[in-house]
Amino acid sequence: MGSSDEHHTLHIFFFPFLAYGHIIPTVDMAKLFAEKGVKATIITTPGNAPFISKAIGKAKTNNNQIQIQTINFSSAEVGLPDGLETTDSITNPCMIEPFFMAISLLQEPLEQLLLKQRPNCVVADMFFPWATDSAAKFGIPRLVFHGTSLFSLCATTCMRFMDPNNDVSSDSESVTIPNLPGEIKIARTSLASYGTGTDMNNLLKEAKESELRSYGIVVNTFYALEKDYADLYSKVLGRKAWHIGPLSLCNRDIEEKAHRGKDASVHEHECLKWLDTKKPNSVVYVCFGSTTRLPDSRLREIAIGLEASGQPFMWVVRKSKEDGVEWLPDGFERRMEGKGVIIRGWAPQVLILEHNAIGAFVTHCGWNSTLESVTAGVPMITWPIFADQFFNEKLVTEVLKIGVPVGAKKWIGLEGDSVSWDAVEKAVKRIMNGGEAIVMRNSAMELSKLARRAMEEGGSSHSDLIALIEELSSITF
Fold it and tell me: Given the DSSP bridges, would you call strands 66-70 and 358-363 parallel, antiparallel or unpaired?
């Protein structure tokens, strides 16, 4: 490929779903395309624009190539509090339906922008199934961004081929996912709520149909990580997919990495300074993402398990200081002084995972966290909560063999399955000590090297990105 100037005329709309777990990788993706000279416009709502603007402002190259266009989110019209513009602000399950109603009202203002600006392509999140039709009205190709693994996309597709007589209400505890490489068995209880509720079922169905009519998908992964599933997706299922990750690697310095998410509740230098005092591979990092809301009883079991393991830890808890500390065992923070750190709120996760003191990551298996852990070469203790996280756990523990399951088997909402403190202790000891731990750590470090190589010139993800840009540049309208 010649100089990046060739693609200055290529203009792509990036339209992330209104959740931090979707916005963050989409911003990284826009930065990646902008580095190649593509004009990138991120479409979002007024409440999310400052957050995105801040992340873009920290980018060191071509940030003038990225613009933000806002379209109004009709909170009041659907009975939501004014300013509630992300799923992370949803405090009550009864807000979910109106939130998705407001999401559907974004279609018309998006079409007005498409009419006015006529981009060459729209990369829209799976939760906007109508975006395929909106783009088609103007002869514009639409790419889908799922924000999950190819393994998960293949698994959900293969589940549709399941024998109806062998459905998830059967008595047996687990089911083998048909036609999926690896003979993967999954607990029925982790599937029981997949798309529960007519509205969510309909949305997932629409998303799948919309994807089949779209130009293809972009995936935040790299070929070497999910080779069998990448091949299944394209060669067997016949879908067009470009693997252009790990997207987080477009953030190259401390400032960029620190400002990927919301404002951290603790300064990145404080985190790193504390980690500097610990031995390599000795600290357990614990974080359940931006959406999970663990109840006090679950947090208490984690606290007891961490203390019993004897390992130093850094634990991110989505609670403010005003919530009090009654969920912690008596005297816990005093006993753990110097041994463990609790961060209440948001933490600079990529920086923490990259620190050589981190030896394991207790994760909910959200794809961003999983891939960030892979990229940093950190083995995982897997504790899935809902949706694709149960599939991602299987990829980590059974396919890649760089993780230990804590034993969560049920999807029961955003609170997660109940796991006892001794299961936490056992998993921590297993991943931190002994021969198995060394093998997992070495495998994780090998994947980390492959992840970085994929994003370098000539690597699989870099080549897929260039191929996609060139293909989109060649399409005439």
Answer: unpaired
Q: What 3-state class would DSSP assign to 225?
A: helix
| Residue 184 domain boundaries | 4-250+453-474
Residue 85 and residue 11 share a domain = yes
- Listed in sequence order, the residues at least 6 apart from 358 whose beta carbon sits closer than 8 Å to its beta carbon are 275, 281, 283, 284, 285, 314, 352, 376, 378
Domain assignment present for 376: yes
> Is 257 within a domain?
no
Q: Which pair of tokens denotes residue 47?
A: 């409440």
Note the pLDDT of residue 256. 82
Is pTM beyond 0.90? Reply is: yes
Same domain, 13 and 130: yes
CA angle 193, 198, 202 (to 5 degrees): 100
Q: Are residues 215 and 308 in the same domain?
A: no
Half-sphere exposure of residue 266: CA atoms within 13 angstroms, side-chain side: 23
Helices (H), 127-180: 131-136, 150-159
Q: Are residues 117 and 221 in the same domain?
A: yes
H-type helices in 150-197, by residue range? 150-159, 188-191
Tell whether 256 is covered by a domain: no
The CA distance from 78 to 81, in Å, is 9
- Segment (H or E) for 141: none
> Domain check: are 115 and 172 in the same one?
yes
Phi and psi (nearest 5°) for 267? -65, 140
CATH at 381? 3.40.50.2000
Is residue 224 helix, strand or coil?
A: helix
Dihedral angle sign, alpha carbons of residues 124, 130, 132, 133: negative
Q: Which residues of the chain, if any, have pLDDT below 70?
A: 1-8, 58-64, 161-172, 192-200, 261-267, 319-325, 476-477
Assess whether 122 and 135 both reside in one domain: yes
Give 39-69 pLDDT, tens digit per residue.
999 999 999 999 999 888 765 555 468 999 9
Q: What is the pLDDT of residue 477?
A: 55
Q: What is the pLDDT of residues 235-258, one digit of tens each?
A: 988 899 999 999 999 988 887 887
Q: Which residues are designated catalytic?
A: 22, 125
Say if residue 231 is in the same domain as residue 271: no
- Cβ-contact 428, 306 below 8 angstroms: yes
217 shares its domain with 321: no
Name the phi and psi angles at 43, rounded to 5: -95, 125
Give, in degrees to the nearest 5, the angle at Cα 19 between 18 and 23.
80
3-state secondary structure of 123: strand
Q: Domain tally for the chain?
A: 2
